[in-house]
Every structure is written in C-alpha cells, then in structure tokens.
Please model this.
Amino acid sequence: MKRLLVVVDMQNDFVSGALGSPAAEAVVPVVKEIISCALKEGWRVVYTQDTHGEDYLSTNEGRRLPVLHCIKGSHGWEIVSELKPLRGRVFEKGVFGSIALAEYARDNEYGEITLCGVCTDICVISNALLLKAYCPEADVRVAASACAGTTAENHAAALTAMKSCQVEIN
Model:
C-alpha cells in the first residue's frame, strides 16, 4: 500500500510569526520526528504552503482575517527551518485546502494518508476532508499530537468533526 504524509502549513507565520502560538511552536519537534519516521519507512512526504500576495487584505479571506501572513517570498511564508531541507513536493495554496494535493493523492492511488501541521481547525481539517472526498477508499488519518489549532477548543472541535467524517484521529 502506498503511504503519504501531508505536512500542513508548517510556516514561520503560523508557528512563531503573525499568527503563531505556543501550541504551534510545541508541535514542531513532533512533526519533525513524524517526517523522519515516515521517510525511514518509505512514505512519500509532501507539504502544503499557505501562499498569499500583497493584496491579501482585499481578498474574501483577508477581509475576515485582516492579518497579513504568508506573503509569497517573505520570511513568514517559508517553511520553518527545523523542517528543512524539504524532502518532498510542496503544494502552494491560496485557500485553506489544496485541490491539487487531493488530485495528486487520488491520481497516485495512496492507500494511507496521514496529516499533521497547523491549523487543525482551518487548513488541516480542510485538507483532510478534501483528501477523504478525493480518495474515499484511502485510510485518512490525522496525527493529533502533531497538530495545533487556533485555540485548544478549536483544535478539539476540529478533531471531533473529522472523526465524524471517518477521518481517523491518532
């Protein structure tokens, strides 16, 4: 069975920058360990990268979350240094979930897909549900201890929502 690890938005702005949090900082070593184990076991590892332009505040998302973040080419946009060098494809995305990632997973017939990263209640859940929709026969899992939400309550609520949609929570 082909296995895929999806590392969601582990970028400076979500860890220690404009939208960072202590919870996000705390999962960095856990994510690093998961990546290391996955690579040793022959998993394919891919990354998502939230990507916005200077016009972010004029977008629908930017009007609802008026915090400049993940501006392409900025330090905040970069994947955190602890996870470099990247050994896998990067899917830049301007919205919460990546259809290109879901299509990639479907087209490559991954049977097991695990997600980790930030934010559990926004981009992790969006990508998990897209992957579940595009790969209905795959076992889609979220490594809860390697995720951080915008708040502890939102993290827990997202895990509950994903579980009710047949995403396994580990």
Notes: The CA atoms of residues 158 and 164 lie 10 Å apart. The first strand starts at residue 3 and ends at 8.
